[in-house]
Specification:
The complex is a heterodimer of chains A (264) and B (459). Chain A has 264 residues and is mostly helical. Helices cover 75% and strands 0% of the residues of chain A. Chain A contains 13 helices and no strands. The longest helix of chain A has 27 residues. Chain B has a domain of 143 residues: abc- transporter (atp binding component) like domain (Coagulation Factor XIII, Chain A, domain 1). Chain B is 28% helix and 30% strand. Chain B is built from 10 helices and 21 strands. Classes of the chains: A mainly alpha (264), B alpha+beta (459). The interface between A and B is large, with 37 and 37 residues.
């Protein structure tokens, strides 16, 4: 484990290079570049806002902001897992011809999406500032939350990218799992709306706790009626589950890694 | 520091310590390494299948490398040769750490770089310059080293004008040149090369060889897999001949290369014989049909202990009659082996009957060295009655010709067929060779014997 980290560190330049490549390739050939990637969350936001503030009338104030501050961190997870799933197979030419720590490939996908996520947050800050949110009060918590969420995302991406080499139809399953996960996380609805007896299950989902943090930092600062930061116990449970996911993902990846070159 | 790679896949990679140890002159040591591949009958298993049957689809095992041991010293250039499928590339991949051995261990002392494919991992949408950085990083180079060497890399690749063009617009030669330039500038202690020297035009290739020579001179270790025996003999100090996953021999390049050449020639010969056999049996089956007894050349020669000049002859037939020998005689009945255009000759073959055959057809076919049929005829086509023959009858069949052949070597294939004109007692391919002395009179296959007139004023 320790040796692996040391080795990964010695290949950090490759990780940076591949992350840069992921981002470059993504935005190549479009003048607006990064701004296109904002289009997806903005459109999602508009659609859900229309549904929940005009059609279904949830009664949540400034629903768009309520939604987007949970949607962006969740998209970080979804995008990483979805892109990461095919990353090993997609780079078969590298895997087959050159040796380097294989985890760099899915990790570069995670890092690229992380950078994307951070840029989206910057855009969000601008919008929040214009709308008069005091988003900066609890901002010091943000890096920590992003740091912890990163491990969850990395663990899931490593797990899925490795398993997908052996079971190619996993890719289809992942789309469904991610959809279930999305609706099982309070992104388009507030946690309080979940009936008391189900809240316990929903709270076992670490993404529930993390999105709750994001929402408290950005949204409830203006509408302190709902929310409230998760309790220490809830937070620790989420961190614990996150670490389990991360290490499972990591060890499964390491276990299967030596078979990649033969299987693809 | 030096560690041993155990046959333990989890710790395998971590144990490959790549630092050059003091006082140790072995660069690469391969110790009784075997590699077994599983060939799945259904390539990509599905989740459903795995869950339902709780195991993978059926597979065959394939032993790509079988107990291979050798070592390469620092500063040596080692060549690995062998026919396709002998395990050369598997061996390189094992040394590069891309795959793990099923059993055995590999020790690597020093930084290693493997050129298994040039430009592996180039991204088509990125420019040459961007790809240099990524590819160099993949090969283990630091960014500041790339900055320093960028100029060299671009210059060596001769792509100055196109370096900021996306590589998808490169020709395959440009692509390879860029790949080679990057790889060669990584500057490892141990270099593994797989058939990548055939890059670009003559001038660029010469440049590549110079770089490899410089590499050798500076005391680097190189391991080359190649089919180009000239290159191997010229560059290597040591050659390994691999066949079916096993080392046949290793040693000085000249000895090993000539051993390999002999093996290849043998293989080629065998393949030719196989091919001829296959073709013959094809012809035979179409001629004979399936209602007749099928006897191929080898069988008949075993049956009757028949061979001419100690050579087995490609022949077929039921064996009811045997063609004993073919000769050519001149007008005076003297046996000859040469003739010239316009000579009158007789081609005679002797037949020994082993059973009663009614109205057999005696035939002859003349082919050129490429197998084109020049002429063929038989007693049926010529409406010659032959009569009935019994066991033990000896017959001599004579065809007299005026040699209207242009010149060269021609083969004679005699045959004795049954009266149905479909099946044969004996057919011998290329039993006899006629040499016609070349006289510059014409070209082509047939002599149409034209009369040539020249009129001065034509209308």
């Amino acid at each position: 484990m320790f040796g692996n980290i040391k080795k990964l560190f010695s290949y950090r330049e490759l990780l940076f290079s591949l992350t840069k490549k992921e981002l470059k390739v993504k935005y190549r050939g479009s003048v607006l570049g990064f701004f296109w990637s904002l289009l997806n969350p903005i459109l999602t936001m508009l659609v859900y806002s229309f549904v929940f503030s005009i059609v279904l009338k949830s009664g949540i104030e400034e629903f768009a902001i309520f939604l987007i501050c949970a949607l962006l961190p969740f998209n970080f997870l979804t995008n990483s897992v979805n892109y990461g799933a095919g990353s090993i197979i997609g780079n078969s030419n590298l895997i087959n011809k050159i040796y380097f720590p294989r985890e760099i490939i899915p990790l570069s996908v995670v890092f690229a999406n992380l950078i994307n996520f951070l840029l989206e947050l910057v855009a969000l800050f601008i919008v929040l500032a214009i709308m008069g949110y005091k988003f900066y009060i609890y901002l010091y918590i943000l890096p920590l939350i992003i740091f912890i969420e990163f491990f969850l995302v990395a663990g899931m991406t490593l797990l899925v990218s490795a398993l997908n080499v052996l079971f190619r139809d996993l890719q289809h399953l992942i789309t469904i799992i991610m959809m279930v996960w999305f609706f099982g996380t309070p992104v388009i609805y507030p946690l309080e709306m979940v009936p008391e007896k189900y809240q316990f299950i929903i709270k076992l989902n670490p993404m529930t706790i993390y999105t709750s943090y994001y929402r408290n930092i950005f949204y409830y600062i203006k509408f302190p009626g709902g929310g409230g930061f998760p309790s220490a116990a809830e937070t620790l449970t989420a961190v614990g589950i996150t670490l389990v996911v991360f290490f499972t993902g990591y060890f499964v990846f390491k276990k299967l890694e030596y078979r990649f070159a033969e299987e693809i | 520091m030096r560690k041993i790679i155990k046959n333990n896949n989890e710790n395998y990679r971590e144990d490959r310590i790549k630092s050059r140890s003091a006082g140790n002159d072995i660069a690469v040591e391969v110790d009784s390494v075997s590699k077994r591949y599983r060939i799945y009958h259904e390539k990509i298993p599905s989740l459903k299948q795995t869950v339902l049957t709780l195991k993978r689809t059926t597979y065959e095992e394939f032993l790509a490398l079988d107990d291979v041991s050798f070592s390469v010293k620092h500063g040596e250039t080692c060549g690995i040769i062998g026919p396709n499928g002998s395990g050369k590339s598997t061996l390189l991949k094992l040394m590069a750490g891309i795959i793990c051995p099923t059993s055995g261990k590999i020790k690597i002392n020093g930084p290693l770089s493997a050129l298994l494919e040039l430009g592996a991992g180039f991204h088509p949408d990125l420019t040459g310059r961007e790809n240099i950085y990524i590819n160099a990083a993949i090969l283990g180079m630091k960014k500041r080293d790339v900055d320093k060497k960028l100029k060299d890399i671009i210059e060596f690749s001769e792509l100055e004008r196109f370096i900021d063009t996306p590589v998808k617009n490169y020709s395959s030669g440009m692509y390879m040149r860029l790949g080679f330039s990057i790889a060669i500038n990584v500057n490892p202690d141990i270099l593994l090369v797989d058939e990548v020297l055939a890059v670009g035009d003559q001038a660029f290739q010469a440049k590549c060889y110079r770089v490899i020579y410089d590499f050798m001179k500076s005391g680097k270790t190189i391991i080359i897999v190649s089919h180009d025996l000239e290159t191997v003999s010229a560059l290597c100090s040591n050659v390994i001949f691999l066949k079916n996953g096993k080392i046949v021999d290793m040693g000085k390049p000249l000895d090993i290369v000539s051993e390999y050449r002999a093996y290849i020639e043998e293989l080629e010969k065998k393949r030719m014989v196989e091919q001829q056999k296959a073709e013959r049996s094809k012809i035979f089956k179409t001629v004979i049909g399936d209602d007749r007894k099928v006897v191929d050349g080898e069988e008949i020669s075993k049956l009757s202990h028949l061979s001419i000049d100690g050579e087995t002859i490609n022949r077929f037939g039921s064996g009811d009659a045997e063609i004993m020998r073919v000769k050519m005689v001149d007008e005076n009945g003297k046996e000859i082996s040469y003739c010239k255009y316009g000579d009158s000759v007789e081609i005679i073959y002797e037949v020994l009957f082993k059973a009663e055959v009614e109205e057999p057809i005696f035939g002859i076919r003349i082919t050129d060295y490429r197998g084109n049929i020049i002429y063929g005829t038989n007693t049926r086509l010529k409406k010659v009655e032959t009569g009935t023959f019994n066991n033990g009858d000896k017959v001599s069949v004579s065809f007299s010709f005026k040699i209207n052949l242009i010149g060269g070597e021609y083969s004679v294939s005699p045959a004795v067929g049954y009266s149905d004109n479909r099946t044969y007692c004996d057919w011998v391919n290329d039993m006899f060779t006629i040499n016609v002395i070349h006289r510059n009179i014409a070209e082509g296959l047939a002599d149409l014997d034209p009369e040539i007139k020249i009129e001065k004023e034509f209308r």
